[in-house]
Amino acid sequence: MEISTAVFTDILSPLAAFSRPSQPAPEDKVLPPPPVPANSGHITTQSPPRPSPATTGTSPKWHLDGADFDGRRFFAVPAFALDAPPLRIDVYVPPLDQYPPTLLASLRPQATFYTLPPCIPSLPIARHLLRALETWSASLGGPRFERQYSSLPFGSQVLVTNVAPDPSDMRVVLSPNYDIEQAMPTLAALQGMWASRNLPWPPELDWAALRLVRQLHEAISLVHIDGTDGTLYVFKSLTRDQRYLYNELKMLLALPAHPNLVPRPLYVVTRRARFGGRRGVCGFVLPYYALGSLKHRLLRQSESCASERRITPSEQFRWARQVADVFVHITTRAGAFYPDLKPDNIVLCAREDGKMDAVLLDLEQRGGWFSWTPPEVAYVEYLEILAGELVAEGENEVVREEEVLRLLRAYFGDEEWTPGSQRDRYWNSEGGFSAPWLALRDSTGGRWDRAQVFMLGKLLWCLFERQGLVRCGIDHEMLQEDLGVGGAEGVIGFPEFRETPEGVRSLIRKCTAGAPEWEGRGRGVVLSGGKLVPVCAWLEGKAGDVTAEETRDEARRWWAKEVEKAMKFVGEVVEGRRQGPDGTEVSEVLRQAEARPRLVDVLAEIERLGSEAGVEW
Question: Which GO terms describe its molecular function (predicted)?
Answer without folding.
Answer: ATP binding; protein kinase activity
